[in-house]
DNA sequence: GTCCAGGCTTTCC
DNA sequence: GGAAAGCCTGGA
């Protein structure tokens, strides 16, 4: 992809950027560390660096960085090599997705760090986004390395597996407010720290192979494994089925209540290699519509 | 083998 | 007080 990149003091700017809206990217549920500032910019830490992202008209401003880090880290992190215009054109052949995309046209799928993503989505099980964010921040602030300060807030990286593996599960539960997920966090951290489980090898596996491997971890089932594969390992055919995607698929496609396994197979069948992108547009759409229980009841009458 | 109810921590709405 | 980006266990 060709971009009009401009280097400023402690910042990089992309002129006339299409398919990039911070709100759509950071509030579609794929990440838990992006902090909304008063000026509607977002700040986060990834790969040991603090960065602030702001949409300024048609331009995107990446602050607290330089061209070197932009090329080495952020270009891949923000998935800038992918043509989202082409993906949207293809998915828009489906009228339901065309509508969903109109709500979240600036969404992109991030390439996040494997261990942090794995633990974050283990925490996400039967949980709420504000609580997930709080737990990830508590863990990082307690165990992670200081990476910088932006707008008066200190940012700490997500810790290496050894740090979590060495803690008592009760300490993890009480200190980070993760409840029954504490044992799972400790055990997965231990397996990764001891090299009994190699996360990095998943980069070279298919979605199916990666899923078979990830679901051997405690706390990682079908949904969480698909999230890890999609948000950390670039498996864009992964189709995580959470309650929101379940509702939106039942309401618009299947026209009946069914189980998540059935919905997962249906999603893979109709969206194929683009299932992951479709899932993100649909997830954002379902939440924006607040497609809750009251609408499920309409299904039988359609 | 598959399917599904019940339990799990804590907080947010 | 019910529900929440689910997973695990055990019984049918």
From TrEMBL:
UniProt GO MF annotations: class I DNA-(apurinic or apyrimidinic site) endonuclease activity; damaged DNA binding; oxidized purine nucleobase lesion DNA N-glycosylase activity
Transmembrane segments: none
Keyword Transferase: no
Gene3D superfamilies attached to this UniProt entry: 3.30.310.260, Helix-hairpin-Helix base-excision DNA repair enzymes (C-terminal), Hypothetical protein, domain 2
Pfam families on file: HhH-GPD, OGG_N
Taxonomic superkingdom: Bacteria
UniProt name for this protein: DNA-(apurinic or apyrimidinic site) lyase
Enzyme class: lyase
Keywords annotated in UniProt: DNA damage, DNA repair, Glycosidase, Hydrolase, Lyase, Multifunctional enzyme
Reactions catalysed, as given in the entry: 2'-deoxyribonucleotide-(2'-deoxyribose 5'-phosphate)-2'-deoxyribonucleotide-DNA = a 3'-end 2'-deoxyribonucleotide-(2,3-dehydro-2,3-deoxyribose 5'-phosphate)-DNA + a 5'-end 5'-phospho-2'-deoxyribonucleoside-DNA + H(+)
Domain HhH-GPD, residue spans: 123-287
InterPro entries to which the protein is assigned, alphabetical: DNA_glycosylase (IPR011257), HhH-GPD_domain (IPR003265), HhH_base_excis_C (IPR023170), OGG_N (IPR012904), Oxidative_DNA_repair_enzyme (IPR052054)
Any Gene Ontology biological process: base-excision repair
SMART domains linked: ENDO3c
Enzyme Commission designation: 4.2.99.18
Family, per entry: Belongs to the type-1 OGG1 family.
């Amino acid at each position: 992809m060709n971009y009009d990149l401009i280097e400023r003091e402690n910042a990089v700017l992309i002129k006339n950027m299409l398919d990039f809206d911070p709100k759509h990217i950071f509030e579609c549920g794929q990440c838990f560390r992006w902090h909304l500032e008063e000026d509607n910019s977002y700040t986060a830490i990834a790969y040991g660096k603090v960065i602030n992202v702001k949409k300024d008209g048609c331009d995107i401003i990446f602050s607290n960085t330089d061209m070197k880090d932009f090329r080495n880290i952020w270009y891949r992190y923000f998935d800038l090599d992918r043509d989202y215009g082409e993906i949207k054109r293809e998915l828009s052949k489906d009228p339901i997705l065309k509508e969903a995309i109109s709500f979240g046209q600036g969404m992109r799928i991030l390439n996040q760090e494997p261990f942090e993503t794995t633990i974050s989505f283990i925490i996400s099980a039967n949980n709420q986004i504000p609580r997930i964010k709080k737990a990830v921040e508590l863990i990082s602030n307690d165990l992670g390395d200081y990476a910088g300060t932006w707008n008066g807030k200190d940012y700490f990286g997500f810790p290496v597996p050894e740090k979590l593996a060495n803690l008592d599960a009760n300490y993890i539960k009480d200190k980070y407010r993760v409840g029954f997920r504490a044992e799972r966090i400790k055990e997965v951290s231990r397996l990764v720290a001891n090299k009994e489980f190699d996360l990095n090898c998943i980069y070279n596996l298919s979605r199916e192979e990666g899923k078979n491997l990830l679901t051997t971890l405690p706390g990682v089932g079908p949904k969480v494994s698909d999230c890890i594969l999609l948000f950390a390992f670039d498996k864009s055919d992964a189709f995580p089925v959470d309650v929101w995607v379940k509702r939106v698929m039942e309401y618009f496609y299947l026209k009946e209540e069914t189980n998540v396994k059935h919905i997962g197979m249906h999603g893979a069948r109709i969206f194929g290699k683009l299932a992951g992108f479709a899932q993100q547009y649909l997830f954002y759409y379902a939440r924006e519509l607040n497609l809750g229980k009251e609408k499920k009841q309409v299904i039988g009458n359609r």
